[in-house]
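Handout, section B. The chain below has 249 residues.
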Amino acid sequence: MEKLLYGRPKSLRDTPTKYCGGCGHGVIHRIITEIIDEMGIQEKAIITNPVGCAIWADLYFDFDSVQPPHGRTPAAATGIKRVLPNHLVICYQGDGDMAAIGTAEMIHAANRAEKFTTIFVNNAIYGMTGGQMAPTTLVGQKAVTAPGGRDPDAAGMGYPIRVSELLATLDGSRYIARGAVDSPSHCRKTKAYIKKALEAQMKGLGFTMVEILSQCPTNWGMEPVEAVEWLEKNMIPVFPLGEIKNTIE
């Protein structure tokens, strides 16, 4: 007699993906839906997905979703959580959406201790719009708008922003962690961070966020395996993994 040990999460729709080969968004979606199933809160889950590659997220998550304007996901998540305080509200953002267009929105939401959870996907580049330099682009990393590589001394470039460390300084942030999806072991740790953040939200403990380092082979100009190796070698030293702030335990 066969027993099914592993399958598609109930909260994840069975539909072909629009993401590029090797993209980390699909893995992150899988992790989120596994946790929602484990917590038994599919009917109470709501995600706000922004303009960017994750604009397709509503096709994959089998629960309610709202698509705010670019950078305004924290404002939408704030309103939803205040109206429906017993629901799980996830603010899903990329690095361009959160660390550039929506920086003020997120900083003030965290400072107010808004009780939603942000999943911040950091692939160090603008994805959907064609590979421009993002606030998280590494020094020396090439982009469409930085063909010679990011140069801190060049006008308008500066340094990569460490969003998690920035938000951890705010009194309203309760739990901040950074994971990655470049390996099975990192995926397991990232899942543990996300579950801890979501459980803290349902307890009403305040603002929680998990940053996730993710591959973008298309805009990095790499094959998927090469992109995984590049993330491990180059991104993790700049954006160290682990719990950055934990006041929920």
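Note. The CA atoms of residues 18 and 246 lie 35 Å apart. Compare this with the example in section A.
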